[in-house]
Each structure stands twice: as structure tokens, then as C-alpha cells.
């Protein structure tokens, strides 16, 4: 599925957070969005997912929807958003409950998700019994259960420790290799963007405007190889250069009380 | 995939889910459907006033139309007249003054005692272990059942009234205080210990301000309890007081005067609630 | 009404307190006098006199017997209740309520009921029978209720507690309580209300609507009530020349009925059996005085005509 | 640095802080001093029992030594005898049954009504705006003041007793419910919306279970309130019931029986508290 | 100041979290501690700081204490541990309050901390009005106000976004260049360890034992230079190799309920 964002502007009361965003995601593309804190990244994602109503401008989708898709545009959250009172498998079942699926189909989808994410042995566990990494795996399994056409990821790894982050990035790469789902990936972390994205969209400090769209030429599969490092270091340098001043200023800005 | 699928797959789940395993579809460009919103609290300043006005209108209407006998439900106009009468002959102020003094003293005593015990239970494990069951045993004892004993212990003067209100306030304050102390973030206490702050300073600078929100929330409950108990307290030989006034009106079956007294109690409740809101906004502006 | 309807017993509920002053009602019920009249009467017991007329006003019960209070007259003034007959009354030689002084007050000179002027007296509530008893005592001895300090304590236990604790100088207490207090040495009995100021303590009442719509039933109720009253009067109200109680016909049987109904020992009940008029006639003068007293106290609407609270047609006064 | 500095600088702040600017010092190897601990709650199961035992002993002692008149404060042995008497003649069960039925029905009615209104206020902004001031106006109205009106409105039978308890329970339940809904994490609701869950499913699967802890905490308070109000409720023409029993014992000045009745109320409070704890442990095991 | 940890073992009830730790920190050394989640890193730090009483073994200190030091061993916390009801300057003043300092000295210490951390303009702000980065700067300023001889840092950057993390690492480097404070630095993040530490201590999964102590040969000042990258990449590879299996297993371990 393709995403077409045009002339998008958003205001919370009198605070403008997004200003004239124009953006197109190609079928199967992964676009990373980086930008200083408070610049409107989560808002942009919310608008793309139909959770926030934009003040002006439009977000449209078109293109292929996979077989059996129940929720074409699906979020993966930073805080996992698991129901603490449901077991792992019931958390996944939640998003299937209000669809008319056969019991077998429902079971099949839950089980596939559990197995793919290595959660099978933990299907009866409550979220509180899981580590952060396991919880995000549940979040991913839940998203996969609806067979999405597009994933919106809002800093999916930033609540995790660095080691678990590395492990989950491998999971994501495996996922995309199989599914080719279009994805909008919001992050603060240049390394994540460099590892996962086809293009990186750099937003300015609030009100968020597109400062630059940087394409990473190296294919995803080869980015771990030594030969790729030079190009990646160069892109990294360029992105960090774009970011640093904005980040410094944003960090020193007193939040609205 | 069955062709009963809707043309709009955007953010909308298909109305009839797929049963088979046909190939995926392609959809034409279409806007993302909004599916958020709701489950937030917006302010509607006018609504409260409108509600009160509507309530009064319905009440008056019911009486005017003769749907309820004025004995059973005197109309607001009659209640208003009774209230105006109280203002005119000065009895409102006399009764209010007496009750406010009792509420103030009783509430302060109960609150101080409750906070003291609550702090002890919040800080010392032994005090907690002893206190919790005692509180749950004594809390549900109805104050009115003990009025004769209160008279024997505290006489019929002001002390027994302070005691009635004070005991009613004491137990909820104890519970609110130790729960509030439980909710003080432990990391702040560990931080203070790691900087070598003495025990007293930790109590004063961390535990007390950290428990303040919970304690203030408790005040909201105990203020209502104090108002409720002023009637029980003034069962004991009170000459003046809103509670005594309401009891007398009830005994004399003067339902309009009774409701006028109840209205005064209600307004006192609203006033105390407002004061507490202001206090919270001032003291807890850091939240 | 058809014959079938007449045969089915009419339902009625009567409210009373579990006190011996409600004795005639207990007797009428226990001895089947209501049933004989074709009435199926339910007895509903209350803990406070004030609630009985309210229950009549709300239509929960058809009849009530209890002491007369300012609240009663306020309900009467709103057309909710009407007195149709007498219940018990304070009468010389019948010790129902005692004026009691604490030992300290007695030693300080409170020796007779007349000395109560200027003293602190525990009563249940403003507008209660106790309040009126202070009022008529004042009428007799030339002081107003303003000249005593009445301490309303809502209930007898609180009054006893305040009396024992020396919080008040005096109390007007029911005979059982006052005898107990005197026996404990907590205070002294100065005299009896019946001896000092006889008055119409209680009445049988119903709602005007009842009289209007079910007059035959009220008449049946009255017949049964009067039968029981007469029996009660004969058994308990006889006195010999010295004023000592004489056991009349059926004394033990009736005493057992009342003891059963009030859940008290017969000996205790026997000590506090009040006087009743065998024809259920009211002390009309006193009822008028009561209304005027409450009106002067500002507790009953001045517009109330004292005569309008009574319907004397059932007792033929 | 002044030489008044203690030899132990490890985790211990210097007793006399430096005033000047001399060079740093060197200290010999020494263990790090422990400065943590405290401010946690440990369990002492025995303490509660010991406290109750001590309380009873002191109370009995005071009576035995003649420090308090048995009329004013009957010894626990007398209260125990009175209680045994109630058990023996079956009146305990009779009274308990009557009161339990009233508490149960009144509490359930008040709780259902309160949760319904609380849910409306938690979800709809308009209901909230209308409800909050109405609740703060009606909450502090003392139920005993309204007894005469309750008789007129609900009669003298069970309905007026249910109403007394129900209204007492209603308002705290409303407050607990809407506060509990406020505390349901908004991110879970947004998640459900983003998966296209219908409004009713969000309510059922997310808002209700998420609000449960707060609602159960409210039950603790309303259970105590129901116990307190059973006495007020049974002031209205009740033949049986623990409240009526206590009132009658008071009227007859039987303080030992009175306290036996109060003891029963207290034990009911403890029992209900225990049941709620078990319920919480079962329903909220996910916390 | 030097830190001497010997034969250290710690148990919470029947859960052993540290087992026979022997460790020495040299004067002015920065030792990073890495290890899977739950292996006892925070516990180790708590014991070193006198906040947790060890089950067995000893932790001793010796050596130089700087001039005017009020609290030789001082923590910097992951969650900042600021009092939300105090302004920035009062949060710093808190740790000076119970010492007999002259008013001037107190003011001077607070002001120095505020200025050094670029907080002067925010001294009257409440914590809620600050961004995460600013909050941790307040935490650092507070620690500096007592002139510590040794810093214990428990994942001081992991609650921050990647950009702010980069900025604060620069602050730390500046700090150590000036103060030469001994530091025990717990982190999950290999990049942080590689940027800041002299040596890296790798702990095993619970119960934590020392798996290896890796020395980073390259001096801290030169680690950003291209010439250093080869060595750092090699150390990184080695550390990640030591970590990965343990991290994976720890992540999949159900936490104790
Ligand atoms: N519901 C809301 N009402 C009012 N203001 C909001 C709301 N949500 C976000 N904001 C404000 O809008 C701005 C942008 O928020 P948003 O969450 O989109 O930023 P972000 O780029 O995701 O930031 P971060 O990197 O910290 O996640 C912030 O200043 C935030 O305070
Ligand atoms: N006060 C305590 N009581 C009981 N168990 C505890 C306590 N504190 C920590 N634990 C347990 O001890 C183990 C080690 O905890 P610790 O916080 O030291 O680990 P850590 O290495 O810092 O983990 P993380 O990387 O997640 O911060 C964990 O399993 C934890 O659940
Ligand atoms: Mg965001
Ligand atoms: Mg830790």
C-alpha cells in the first residue's frame, strides 16, 4: 500500500506542530522519520493512522492490500500498549475478536503470531511476567495477526535496553524480508534509521517541517557488511549534522506547562 | 478472497472478513478514515449551571402541578422562602456559626490525630501491622450508636461534638495518609539516602511533600464526612447549629425548613470543595 | 359492597411504640377483637413516636397510637392526620413520667418540680412530649419555657447518660428509667407528671382520607379498640381508698399480653401502666392547650384551629 | 581543607563542612558505610493479634479495677456474655440476617446506580460536567437528616432502608468509578481504536477491566459506609436488625448489649474487608 | 578515590543476584559495567554506594577525596530522581541543606552547578517543565554540588532519546576531562561504554558473575577519530559476542511474578 501525505498541517489549540508536510511512501518502502523531541512525529503518525484528525491537508492510501487483511494500517507502539489483565494469547486475540472469523482461523492467526515471535511457551503468561523485549514481541505478533498492509511504528524500540534493541532489529529485518509491508518508522535513533530504512525524513524543530529526505543507497541486506560502512558513516554524518543544532535547541526548550 | 469485501480497506476493517485464501486486492486512492477521538474530558462550564436550573425547574413544576404534595416535597420556592426567613431573622448565621466552629475544631483534631497515626503507620512496619486491623475494626462502627457513650465520656458540651466529628474524620485520614506515604516514589527516598540526608530531613523534604497530594485528596472525603457528622454531633444537646436545626425541623415535620437546612449543608459542601480545589491548585502546581 | 366483599376481612395496619401505653391495641389484637369486627389488623412497631404520624401521612399505615408532639400537629395542620380517640393520659396516682433531680442539684435546692425554673433539663427533642411537659409545669408554676434550659438529646439513653454524668440538673424520665436511676442512687424523684399536671399524653389517629373513604372500617376499628380499652381500664386502672392499685378482672392475662408485646418482664410492665379513659374520650381542653402552646412557641402554624385536629364523632364527645 | 574533618569520608558526610580551599585529602581503606534501608513495609502477622489482645486486656483491667463504671464502659467479659446470650437465644442470627439482607440489597442498588452514573460521567464530557457539581452538592447531605422525608417517599418498610443505604453508597461509588475511568491508560484506548475495535468493545475490554482496581478500592469505602448506615436505616420502624438491636439496647441503657451489637458490626466490617481482599487478589492478579 | 570490591555476593531472599564479584577501580578510572537485564548491575551499584547491604563480601574505598567534598560517593540516576515539587535550584540546594555551609558557599555551589550545566536560565523552572535531557543535567549539577570523589551512574542516559543521549555524552566527557572523578558506569549500551569507559566489565546472566574485564586501549579523547574506529569495532565485536547469547536468554526469561 502507498501513503500520500499532502499539505498536512496540524495544530493543538494554538500550538502548531506540523506545517505543510508533503510525503509519499512507495509500496513496500520503509521510511524513517527523525526529528527533535516535540516536533510532531507522533502526531504525523497518528494522522496517518486515522487516530488524530488533521487540522488541514490530507492523507490518502492506495494500492495492494494483502490477503486476509483485517486492519490495513496498523500501529506498533513504543510502550507496547498491551492489556495487563490479558495473557499474551488473549492480547493477540483482542484484535481479532470483533471480526467474523471462524474459530479455526482465529486460532491459526494467534498461533502463527506466537510461534513466529518465539512466544509459544509464554502464551499463557501475563505481560507483567515478561521482559520489555518479550512485550514488544507480543506487540509485533498482535500487529501481524491482522495482516497489515502498512505498519506505523512510533519509536518501537526506544523503551528497550540497547541489547534487546539489537535483537529486535533483527526480528524486524526478518519480518520485512518476508512481508514487504510498507512502513513509517519514527525514531530518535540514527542507528536504527540507518539499519532499517530506505529513506530518512528529517523534520525540523516544532512546527515540524521536512528539512530533508535522505535516501540510503546501500540495500538493507548488505548494510552489516564492511564494504557498506563508509557510505553509512557518511549518511550518518550528514543526518547528525542536520539534527544536532535542532536537537540541542529542542532539548533546552521549556515544555508547555 | 471473497468479493463481498468493501471497496474501502483504508483504516476500516472489512465488514465481512475473508474466509478463503485468494490473492490480495488493490484499492484506489482514498483518504484515511478517522477512528480516534472520545474518551477525553472536555470542560462544559455552562452544563453544571444548566443542570441545576433544570433540576430546580422540574422540582418546582412537579410541585406546582400538584404531582407531589408540598408535605412530601416542598417546592424550591417554599424552600427558598424558608431560607430567606432564616436569613432575615438571623438564625441562619447563628446556626451556621455554631456548626462551622464545631466542624472546624472537630475536623482539625481528627485530621491532626489521623495524620500523626497515618504517618506512623506509613513509616514504621510495626505501627502498620498493628494499625491496619484496628482501623478496619473501628472504622465501620457507627458514631450514632455510640452517642450515649460519647456523652458519658465527653459530656454534652462541645467536646462530645468535637469527638463525634473528630472520630469520623480520624479513620479516613489515617487510611489516606498511610496510602499517600506508600505512593511516595521510593527512588526519591533512596536518592536522599545516597546523599546522606538525615532521617528527619527525608521525612520533611521528601515524604511529607510527596504524600501531600494523597492527603489533600483525603481532605475532600473527610470534609464531606465532617458535614455529614455535624448532624449526628448536634443530636447531643445543641442549641444552635445547622444539624440541630435540621433535626428540629425533621421532628416538627416542617419539610420546607428541613430542606432549607439541607440546602445550607449542601452549599457548605460545595464551598469547602471549592476551597480545597484552590488549595490543591496552589500546593500541587508541580504536578 | 357485595356480600362476598363484606365477608373478606378488611386489611388495616396500626402503628405503635412497644410501650405499655399502647396496651389496649395489643389487647385488641391479641384477644381477636379486631378479627371479630371483620378487620385483619397488622401491628407495626416503631422506635420513635415522631415516625408514627409520618407513616400515617405517607399512607403506609392506616392508624397510629402514640404520644402527641409538635410534629404531629404540623402534620395535622397539613391535613395529613386527625385524632379520633384518646390513648393514655397522665393522671394523678398513675406514675408514668417522673421529674428527677441529680443529687448535686437536689443538694443545691432543687426539691420540688416548681424549683425547675432556671434549671437545665434533659429532654428528647424540641417539640416532644417532654417539651410540652416542661411547658405545662411552667404554666402551673408561673414560668415560661424560656426560663429553663432544655437540652435536647434525641433519645432516652442520651438523657440518662447526661443525667448520670451531671451534665444537666434534671430530667423528665419514663417510670422504669426513673426508678432504676433512683435505685442506683444516681438522683432523686421529685414528683410525677400525672400528679402535678394531668394531660392527654397520647391519642389514636388516622388520616382524614381514611375517615372520608372508609368510615365503616374506622368505626369497626373503634369498636374493637373501645372494647379493649374498657377491659384494660377495668383490669389496671382501679385504685383502693388509699390510692393503691387493685388487680381488676383479667389482670394477669392482660399483663402477660402487654409484657409479650413490649418484650419486658411483667413486673416491670406492672409498675408503669398508664391511665386510659374507658370510653376513649379525649381531654379536649388539654389538646387545645397543646396546640396553643406549640403555636406560642412558634413550632406550629398559627393558623391552625385547635379544634380541627380532632374528629370526635367516633367517641361521641 | 580544615583538619576537623572526620577520618571517615566514605559514604559519610563530613561533620564539619569545609570553609576554606585547602587541597583534597587522602583516606585509608575503609568499608563503605550502609545508609539505606527503612521506608518499606514488612509484614508482622503477630502484631495485629497482639494489639487486639493488649487492647482487650487493658479494657478488662480498667473495668476490673473499678476505674470505669460498668454502665459507662462494661468490661469485655460482660460484652462477651451479652454476645453469647445473643447467640444462645438465636437473636444474633435473626438480627444479623435482617441487617445483612438490607446491606446487601441497599449496597447492590447503590453500587449499580453509582457505577452506571460513574461510567456515564467517566465517558461523556457532558455527563461529567453536569454530574460533578451535582455530586458535590448531594454527597454531603446527611442521610439521618432526611429520614423523615425518606419515610414519606419510601414508606416505613424495607424500601426506605434500602434507600438510606443505597444513597449513602451511591455517591462515593460515582466518584470512585469516574476517577477509576480517568486512570485507565489512554494509550490502551488509542491502541484499540487504531485496530478498529468498536466503541462497545473498547468499553467492555479496556475501560471496564482497566477501571476495576479503582472501583474495587471504592467498594472498600462503600462497604464501611453501608455498615455505618444500617443503624440510621434501622431507625425507621425496624423490628429486627443489628442497627435496631443497638438502638434498642441504647434505649434500655443496656451498654453491654449495645457494645455486643457494635462488636458484631465491627466483625462484619472485618469480614467484608477480608472478602474484598480475596476478591482483589483474584481479580487483580495481573497487577 | 579507589574502590575495592572483594568476594561480593548478594541475595534477595532466596534469589542470588551477585556471586563472588572481585573488582578494583583505580583512581580516576571509569569502569563500565554491562550485562543482561536482571543480572544485578543496579544491586552492585547500590552496594558500592552504601544503599544496599550486601549479603557477603566487602566493598572498601581509599585514596584522594577532593577539596570541599560533602558526599564522597555520589549517584546519578537513570530516572533523574528530582523532587517534582522543587525548582531546579532547590533540587540542587536539597543536598546541601543538611550541611553546615555558609549561605555564600551554598549559593556559590548551586550557581556553579547551574551555570556549568547550562541551567542558569531554568533555575526557577519545575522539573515537569524540562525535557528529559535537561532533567538529567539537573541530576548531574546536583551530583557536582557535593564535589564527589566517586560517581556511581546507573544507566544515566537510558531514559533519554538517542539524540539527547549523544549530547549528554559530550557533557560527561567534558566533566571527566576537568574532574578526573572515579566512576562506575552501568549501561546496556555498548556504544556508551565504548565512548566513555577505560575498562568494561561484562557480567553474566543472573546470578551475576564477572565474565570478562575488557580494557579499551584507545584513549578516550581520540575515540571519535577515524583511526580509532578499527580498534573500537573490534572491541565492540568482542563485547557483543560475549553479550548476545546471555541477552537473548535473559530477554526470554519470565521475570519473577
Ligand atoms: N493531545 C495533545 N494536546 C495538546 N498538545 C499536544 C497533544 N499531543 C501532543 N501535543 C504537543 O504537540 C507537540 C508535538 O507532539 P508529538 O507527540 O507529536 O511530538 P513527537 O515529535 O512525537 O515528540 P517525541 O519525540 O518527544 O515523541 C508537543 O509539544 C506536545 O506537547
Ligand atoms: N528489593 C528487591 N527485592 C527483591 N528482589 C529484587 C530487589 N531488587 C531487585 N531484585 C531482583 O534482583 C535481580 C537483579 O536486580 P537488579 O536491579 O540489580 O538488576 P539489573 O542488572 O540492574 O537489571 P536491569 O538491567 O534491568 O536494570 C532482579 O531479578 C530483580 O528482580
Ligand atoms: Mg512521539
Ligand atoms: Mg538496573
Automatic annotation (TrEMBL), chains A, E:
Recorded coiled-coil stretches: none
Q: Which UniProt keywords apply?
A: ATP-binding, Nucleotide-binding, Transport
Write one Pfam family the protein is assigned to.
Answer: ABC_tran
Named from the GO MF annotations, one term is: ATP binding
Presence of the UniProt keyword NADP in the record? no
Cross-referenced InterPro entries: AAA+_ATPase, ABC_transporter-like_ATP-bd, ABC_transporter-like_CS, ABC_transporter_ATP-bind, P-loop_NTPase
Nucleotide-binding: present as a keyword of the record? yes
Q: Which family does it belong to?
A: Belongs to the ABC transporter superfamily.
Name the domain of life.
Bacteria
User: In its UniProt entry, what is this protein called?
Assistant: NitT/TauT family transport system ATP-binding protein
Q: Please list the residue ranges annotated as the ABC transporter domain.
A: 3-232
The UniProt entry, under CDD domains, shows: ABC_NrtD_SsuB_transporters
SMART domains per the record? AAA
TrEMBL record, chains B, D:
**Where does the record place the ABC transmembrane type-1 domain?**
96-276
Question: Residue ranges under compositional bias (Low complexity)?
Answer: 1-10
The UniProt entry, under PROSITE patterns, shows: ABC_TM1
Top-level taxon of the source organism: Bacteria
Q: What Pfam families does the database record attribute to this sequence?
A: BPD_transp_1
Query: Where does the UniProt annotation locate this protein?
Result: Cell membrane
Region Disordered: list its residue ranges. 1-23
Give the way it sits in the membrane. Multi-pass membrane protein
Family to which this protein belongs: Belongs to the binding-protein-dependent transport system permease family.
Q: PANTHER family in the record, alphabetically?
A: ALIPHATIC SULFONATES TRANSPORT PERMEASE PROTEIN SSUC-RELATED, ALKANE SULFONATE ABC TRANSPORTER-RELATED, MEMBRANE SUBUNIT
Q: What is this protein called?
A: NitT/TauT family transport system permease protein
- Recorded source organism is Azospirillum picis
Amino acid at each position: 500500500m502507498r501513503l500520500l501525505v499532502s499539505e498536512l498541517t496540524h495544530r493543538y489549540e494554538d500550538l502548531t506542530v506540523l506545517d505543510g508536510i508533503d510525503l509519499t511512501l512507495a509500496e513496500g518502502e520503509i521510511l524513517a522519520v527523525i526529528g527533535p523531541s516535540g516536533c510532531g512525529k507522533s502526531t504525523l503518525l497518528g494522522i496517518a493512522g486515522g487516530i488524530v484528525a488533521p487540522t488541514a491537508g490530507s492523507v490518502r492510501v492506495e494500492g495492494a492490500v494483502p490477503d486476509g487483511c483485517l486492519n490495513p494500517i496498523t500501529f506498533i507502539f513504543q510502550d507496547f500498549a498491551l492489556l495487563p489483565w490479558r495473557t499474551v494469547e488473549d492480547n493477540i486475540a483482542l484484535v481479532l475478536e470483533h471480526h467474523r472469523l471462524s474459530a479455526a482461523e482465529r486460532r491459526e492467526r494467534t498461533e502463527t503470531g506466537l510461534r513466529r515471535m518465539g512466544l509459544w511457551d509464554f502464551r499463557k503468561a501475563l505481560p507483567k511476567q515478561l521482559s520489555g523485549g518479550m512485550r514488544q514481541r507480543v506487540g509485533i505478533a498482535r500487529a501481524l495477526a491482522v495482516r497489515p498492509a502498512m505498519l506505523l511504528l512510533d519509536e518501537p524500540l526506544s523503551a528497550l535496553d540497547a541489547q534487546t534493541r539489537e535483537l529486535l532489529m533483527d526480528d524486524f529485518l526478518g519480518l520485512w524480508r518476508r512481508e514487504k509491508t510498507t512502513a513509517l518508522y519514527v525514531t530518535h535513533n540514527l542507528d536504527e534509521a540507518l539499519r532499517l530504512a530506505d529513506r530518512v525524513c528529517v523534520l525540523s524543530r516544532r512546527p515540524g517541517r521536512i528539512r530533508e529526505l535522505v535516501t540510503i543507497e546501500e540495500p538493507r541486506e548488505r548494510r552489516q557488511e564492511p564494504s557498506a560502512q563508509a557510505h553509512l558513516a557518511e549518511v550518518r554524518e550528514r543526518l547528525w549534522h542536520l539534527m544536532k543544532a535542532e536537537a540541542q535547541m529542542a532539548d533546552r526548550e521549556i515544555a508547555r506547562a | 478472497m471473497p468479493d463481498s469485501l468493501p471497496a474501502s480497506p483504508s483504516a476500516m476493517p472489512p465488514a465481512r472478513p475473508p474466509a478463503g485464501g485468494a490473492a490480495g486486492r488493490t484499492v484506489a486512492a482514498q483518504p484515511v478514515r478517522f477512528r480516534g477521538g472520545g474518551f477525553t474530558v472536555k470542560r462544559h462550564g455552562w452544563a453544571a449551571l444548566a443542570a441545576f436550573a433544570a433540576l430546580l425547574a422540574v422540582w418546582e413544576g412537579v410541585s406546582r402541578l400538584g404531582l407531589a404534595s408540598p408535605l412530601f416535597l416542598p417546592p424550591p420556592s417554599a424552600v427558598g422562602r424558608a431560607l430567606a426567613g432564616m436569613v432575615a431573622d438571623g438564625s441562619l448565621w447563628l446556626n451556621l456559626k455554631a456548626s462551622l466552629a464545631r466542624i472546624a475544631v472537630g475536623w482539625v483534631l481528627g485530621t491532626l490525630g489521623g495524620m500523626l497515626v497515618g504517618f506512623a503507620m506509613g513509616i514504621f512496619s510495626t505501627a502498620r501491622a498493628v494499625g491496619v486491623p484496628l482501623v478496619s475494626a473501628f472504622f465501620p462502627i457507627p458514631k450514632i450508636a455510640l452517642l450515649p457513650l460519647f456523652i458519658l465520656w465527653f459530656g454534652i458540651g462541645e467536646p462530645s461534638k468535637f469527638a463525634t466529628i473528630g472520630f469520623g474524620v480520624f479513620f479516613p485520614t489515617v487510611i489516606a495518609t498511610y496510602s499517600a506515604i506508600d505512593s511516595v516514589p521510593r527512588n526519591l527516598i533512596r536518592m536522599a539516602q545516597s546523599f546522606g540526608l538525615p532521617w528527619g530531613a527525608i521525612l520533611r523534604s521528601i515524604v511529607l511533600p510527596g504524600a501531600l497530594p494523597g492527603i489533600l485528596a483525603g481532605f475532600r472525603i473527610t470534609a464531606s464526612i465532617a458535614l455529614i457528622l455535624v448532624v449526628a454531633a448536634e443530636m447531643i444537646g445543641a442549641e444552635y447549629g445547622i444539624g440541630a436545626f435540621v433535626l428540629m425541623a425533621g421532628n416538627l415535620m416542617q419539610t420546607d425548613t428541613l430542606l432549607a437546612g439541607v440546602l445550607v449543608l449542601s452549599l457548605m459542601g460545595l464551598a469547602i470543595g471549592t476551597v480545597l480545589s484552590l488549595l490543591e491548585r496552589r500546593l500541587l502546581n508541580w504536578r | 359492597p357485595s356480600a362476598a366483599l363484606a365477608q373478606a376481612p378488611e386489611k388495616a395496619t396500626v402503628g405503635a411504640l412497644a410501650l405499655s401505653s399502647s396496651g389496649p391495641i395489643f389487647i385488641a389484637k391479641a384477644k381477636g377483637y379486631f378479627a371479630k369486627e371483620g378487620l385483619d389488623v397488622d401491628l407495626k412497631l416503631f422506635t420513635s413516636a415522631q415516625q408514627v404520624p409520618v407513616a400515617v401521612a405517607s399512607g403506609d399505615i392506616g392508624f397510629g397510637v402514640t404520644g402527641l408532639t409538635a410534629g404531629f400537629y404540623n402534620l395535622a395542620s397539613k391535613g395529613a392526620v386527625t385524632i379520633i380517640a384518646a390513648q393514655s393520659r397522665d393522671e394523678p396516682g398513675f406514675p408514668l413520667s417522673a421529674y428527677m433531680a441529680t443529687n448535686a442539684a437536689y443538694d443545691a435546692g432543687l426539691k420540688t418540680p416548681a424549683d425547675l425554673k432556671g434549671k437545665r433539663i434533659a429532654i428528647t427533642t424540641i417539640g416532644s412530649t417532654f417539651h410540652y411537659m416542661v411547658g405545662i409545669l411552667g404554666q402551673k408554676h408561673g414560668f415560661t419555657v424560656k426560663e429553663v434550659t432544655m437540652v435536647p438529646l434525641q433519645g432516652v439513653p442520651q438523657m440518662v447518660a447526661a443525667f448520670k454524668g451531671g451534665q444537666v440538673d434534671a430530667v423528665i424520665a419514663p417510670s422504669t428509667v426513673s426508678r432504676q436511676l433512683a435505685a442506683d442512687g444516681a438522683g432523686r424523684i421529685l414528683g410525677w407528671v400525672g400528679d402535678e399536671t394531668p394531660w392527654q399524653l397520647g391519642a389514636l389517629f388516622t388520616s382524614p382520607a381514611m375517615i372520608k373513604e372508609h368510615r365503616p372500617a374506622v368505626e369497626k376499628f373503634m369498636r374493637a379498640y373501645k372494647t379493649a380499652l374498657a377491659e384494660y381500664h377495668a383490669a389496671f386502672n382501679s385504685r383502693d381508698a388509699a390510692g393503691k392499685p387493685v388487680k381488676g378482672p383479667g389482670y394477669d392475662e392482660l399483663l402477660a399480653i402487654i409484657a409479650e408485646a413490649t418484650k419486658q418482664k411483667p413486673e416491670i410492665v406492672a409498675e408503669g401502666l398508664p391511665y386510659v379513659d374507658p370510653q376513649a374520650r379525649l381531654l379536649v381542653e388539654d389538646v387545645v392547650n397543646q396546640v396553643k402552646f406549640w403555636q406560642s412557641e412558634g413550632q406550629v402554624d398559627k393558623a391552625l384551629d385547635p379544634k380541627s385536629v380532632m374528629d370526635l364523632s367516633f367517641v361521641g364527645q
